[in-house]
Inverse folding.
């Protein structure tokens, strides 16, 4: 009788599914939300997220989920997570992953996969996801067994932060995800115990050399790129430029490092500075097309590049000094090293700052009449001027478009660090709505203001309904010229005006009505004096909004007209 009462092996063991292991690993990383579009392959992850207290925001297109994960990472500094089903679910997310790669944004995409028991048999939505994702991620792998589910998630997160941040991808076969294993057999890495600090202050000898260069420079300047925000190095960067009296330009997520009006904050004199400086320090941005591949920097200047990624330093252009490290720690170390000198050179640079400020003021005054223009159709400069005046210190600004956002890059100045979002160097249109989603979810205390081109909004705009459904209000503006105007300009230049409307002309859409149809707030604006009042009403509505502003289709941004692809 005693033998009949014996417990079968494993009978009282606690069992856990692959989906619940994934959720535990997400929780250990500090993830509090996933962005997803449902599919039968992945629903056990949802079940695990419910148990772990992780929110599930379901969208209408997988590209939106991936972009939202990217945006969440930028806003919070934590990795964003998107979960999509196999096959077309995963391929729909490819663009978002690729954008995160070029923007150095740490995110994890989890894709479903057919069951291992049906491997290579032609199961539903079976594709070689890992092979497809390898070129656009820092890490891509299949979870081979349920016991390894949490372990592989943690491994993927670790790779997201190796060097410059970026995306990782995991595919999880359906039977691996749904199966249950004894909890004691599963490896679940503990929070904070499976990856090291990535903050490197750089080579001490290089730090001392850079301090020497700054102290000895008569005409230095610094470009503060996206990695200043990625590393949360704002305070160190600010102290560097103010203590050593170095004029600063900002691009990408580095915008907002210095507030508008700061005497060291410059925007319009960059070309002049790069041609006349004797020391140029490039922090956290590559020598890519935005920098003319390094050719825009004077050949006579001493050039220093600071970056998280060794492979970026000196790529496309020789540098006199390269430092691999955390932007904030490196700049703080240089400030400290230079401050120990009898004379750090800051006083002598007053004349250089005045010279640049004069160039800046001249450029601003030349453009100001267009920013105040009462012309109709509306000059895009007037629209972006009104948006800039509308922003507060708590406004996160998002730009999603071609020509219209190029205008805004010259005029709009975020008032605080981390309050500027754009696609990044991949130039992906359609990031606007998902970035709004991520920003407003992560920072509900912040106002979110987004400027869309009408073409860009069309790509992912139906997830405006998701913003309504999850009560994520924002002030949205569509700069509407019924055209893909950046491309249109290039076609006119290459093929003549008679072929300037081929493949780039859109319908005259009243996007305000679209917003209202989906439960948001909307207005049409054709007179420039009506822009600000419409923005104020959108703010007061407390709803997701679209102010549809009809801008002049025959006016192009200088950045559009200067694009090298058309020359």
């Amino acid at each position: 009788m005693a033998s009949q009462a014996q417990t079968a092996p494993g009978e009282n063991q606690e069992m856990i599914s692959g989906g619940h292991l994934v959720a535990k690993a997400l929780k250990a990383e500090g993830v509090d939300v996933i962005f997803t579009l449902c599919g039968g392959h992945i629903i056990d992850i949802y079940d695990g997220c419910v148990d772990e207290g992780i929110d599930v925001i379901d969208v209408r297109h997988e590209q939106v989920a991936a972009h939202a994960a990217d945006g969440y990472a930028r806003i919070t500094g934590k990795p964003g997570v998107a979960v999509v089903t196999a096959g077309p679910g995963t391929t729909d997310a490819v663009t978002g992953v690729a954008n995160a790669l070029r923007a150095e944004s740490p995110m994890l995409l989890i894709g479903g996969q057919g069951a291992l028991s049906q491997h290579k048999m032609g199961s539903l939505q079976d594709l070689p996801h890992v092979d497809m994702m390898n070129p656009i991620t820092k890490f891509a792998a299949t979870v081979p067994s349920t016991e390894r589910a949490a372990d592989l998630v943690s491994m993927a997160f670790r790779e997201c932060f190796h060097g410059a941040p970026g995306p990782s991808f995991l595919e999880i076969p359906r039977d691996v995800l749904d199966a249950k294993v004894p909890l004691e057999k599963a490896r679940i890495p503990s929070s904070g115990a499976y990856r090291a600090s990535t903050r490197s202050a750089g080579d001490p000898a290089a730090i001392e050399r850079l301090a020497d260069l700054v102290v000895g420079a008569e005409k230095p300047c610094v470009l503060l790129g996206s990695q200043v925000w990625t590393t949360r190095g704002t305070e160190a960067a600010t102290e560097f430029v103010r203590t050593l009296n170095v004029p600063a330009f900002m691009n990408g997520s580095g915008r907002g490092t210095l507030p508008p009006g700061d005497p060291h904050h410059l925007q319009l004199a960059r070309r002049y500075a790069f041609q006349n400086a004797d020391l140029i320090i490039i922090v956290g941005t590559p020598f890519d097309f935005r920098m003319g591949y390094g050719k825009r920097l004077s050949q006579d200047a001493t050039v220093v590049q600071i970056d998280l990624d060794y492979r970026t330093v000196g790529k496309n252009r020789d540098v006199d000094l390269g430092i691999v490290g955390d932007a904030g720690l490196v700049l703080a170390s240089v400030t400290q090293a230079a401050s120990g000198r009898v004379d750090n050179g800051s006083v002598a640079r007053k004349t250089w700052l005045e010279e640049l400020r004069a160039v800046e003021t001249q450029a601003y005054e030349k453009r100001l009449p267009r920013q105040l223009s009462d012309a109709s159709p509306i000059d895009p400069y007037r629209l972006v001027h009104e948006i800039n005046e509308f922003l507060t210190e708590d406004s996160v600004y998002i730009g999603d478009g071609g020509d219209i956002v190029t205008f805004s890059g010259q005029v709009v100045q975020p008032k605080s660090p981390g309050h500027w979002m754009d696609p990044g160097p991949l130039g992906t249109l359609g990031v606007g709505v998902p970035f709004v989603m991520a920003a407003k979810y992560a920072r509900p205390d912040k106002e979110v203001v987004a400027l869309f081109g009408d073409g860009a909004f069309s790509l992912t705009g139906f997830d405006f309904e998701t913003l309504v459904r999850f009560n994520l209000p924002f002030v949205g503006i569509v700069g509407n010229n019924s055209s893909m105007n950046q491309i249109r300009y290039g076609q006119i230049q290459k093929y003549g005006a008679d072929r300037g409307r081929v493949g780039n002309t859109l319908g005259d859409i009243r996007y305000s009505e679209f917003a209202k149809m989906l439960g948001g707030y909307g207005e049409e604006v054709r007179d420039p004096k009506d822009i600000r009042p419409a923005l104020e009403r959108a703010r007061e509505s407390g709803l997701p909004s679209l102010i549809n502003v009809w801008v002049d289709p025959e006016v192009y941004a200088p950045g559009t007209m200067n694009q090298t692809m058309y020359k």
Summary: The chain has three domains: 15-185, 204-358, 373-566. Residues 204-358 form a domain with the Rossmann fold fold (CATH 3.40.50.1220).
